[in-house]
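Hi F.,

I've been meaning to write this up properly since the lab meeting, where we talked about keeping a consistent format for the predictions we share between groups. The idea is simple: the sequence comes first, exactly as it goes in, then the structure tokens exactly as they come out, then a line or two of notes. No screenshots and no reformatting. I'm using this chain as the first example so we have something concrete to point to.
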Amino acid sequence: EVQLVESGGGLVQAGGSLRLSCAASGFTFDDYAIGWFRQAPGKEREGVSCIRNRDGRTYYADSVKGRFTISSDSAKNTVYLQMNSLKPEDTAVYYCAADLPSTVAVAILVYPTRPLDYWGQGTQVTVSS
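Output, unedited:
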């Protein structure tokens, strides 16, 4: 059974940091890419970042470049999203998703509502001003 389990969300003040984790199981980790998406109330889903697990290639949305860092630990089948300099507009439910690398990259950069194979349940991030 495929599972993606997010953790690490919470409430933080503007300028603070959080690290999200996405623990994956049930598929060959290095064959996939994992992406982070977010959705705020009343807004469309937005692509945040993704990583190609086999070689570590990363992509970021312009809104988070320089503030967020994605990384992957193949030994633990886990992807991390380090979020620094958080802003109130970063408030959203954050989801991780897995699919083939080209598919995830397109979803992150161009087409965030593109269906992907596997999704986590989401974790809430709230940034207070």
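Notes:
Helices lie at 101-109.
The longest helix spans residues 101-109.

If this format works for you, I'll send the rest the same way.

G.
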